[in-house]
Design a protein that fits this description.
Length: 401
Amino acid sequence: MFILNTNRDYRRPLEPADAETLGIAAAAGVERHLKYRDNNTETRLVSLPALAAEAGVAAIHIKDEGHRLGLGSFKALGGAYAVVCLVLEEAGALLGRAVDMAEFQSPAVRNVAETMTFTCATDGNHGRSVAQGASLVGARAAIFVHAGVSNERVAAIARFGAEMIRVDGSYDDSVKMAASVAEERQWTVVSDTSWPGYERIPGLVMQGYTVLVREALRQMQLPPTHVFIQSGVGGIAAAVAGHLAIVLGEDRPIFTVVDPARAACLFETARAGHPVTVPHTEPTVMAMLECYEPSLVAWRILSRVADAFMTVDEEDAVSVMKRLAYPAGGDRAIVAGESGGVGLAGLLKAVADPAIKAALSIDDRSRIFLVNTEGATDPRKYQDIVGVSPDVVDGEMAGKE
């Protein structure tokens, strides 16, 4: 399914608060934050010229977040960043002075952090980031996971010392449970989705994501003409689209939001013109995108700066995982988890459909930007789908360096 953005807010300026959250100064601040983090390196921008030629476009670039900060996904940039920011703010309030990021592991800050508990609901990747952020500053973390989260992903979060709490039902059920328990126990919710009255912290999470766009623009010779970004609740799509709109202005690329057909909350929200909750059907293989209700902040941004919305099917996600693992024509291999290559799946569906291709003005001059949002965050599931372990694919990558 495909629709153009016809909402009344389309092309209107971002709300001032959103423009500040996703702006140039904020992204520069995130980069400064990362300088104090272990394992911090810019992730690769991978060019796929053979695939670009096959798709009939000038270039395809994928920002590969599969090794970000040792956590395996772009979510490493959001939850941990928000946790550290909140601890520094609390320390500043108690100490009566501004507390800089350079002090984030100091005894004074850790004394404050030890009194704080951070919580969230997660499909896997966001919870891992929140748990890591809490461990960095010496705070507690309590992470809610729904029935569909694999044991491997739960174990990857628990290794940071987080308390793991299983919830029957879906991701949205775990979001509600996390908020309820946090209110009762006075924990701080660090969610990557937002709801009425709860926007600032999800904004910080999204702010963390802007750094991958900042890096990518430096790594490209020319800015992209088109962007396809996958969406769960909308945070990554809104962060990328919003920051590009601020940095590039009228020269910003044509931006398409890509949803799983089985959890198309942004697509249906765009079609309705207001936030909607979609019904639960069969689970999607795109586990990190299995969300049935959009983030209000993300929708407010995307209603203004996204140009189109589309869905992809289960077989599309599986196909691009294999296509990236076994590239043709000498292109570099990429380890993409079940949700990682969904933006590419959207692009390939778009160029195969003459009507969509024309609607998005894609031609042989188009320069496409995508984000591999996760590597093999569940290595066993990756091997079951792709037929080879992620280590083997990583080895192929290393052999081409």
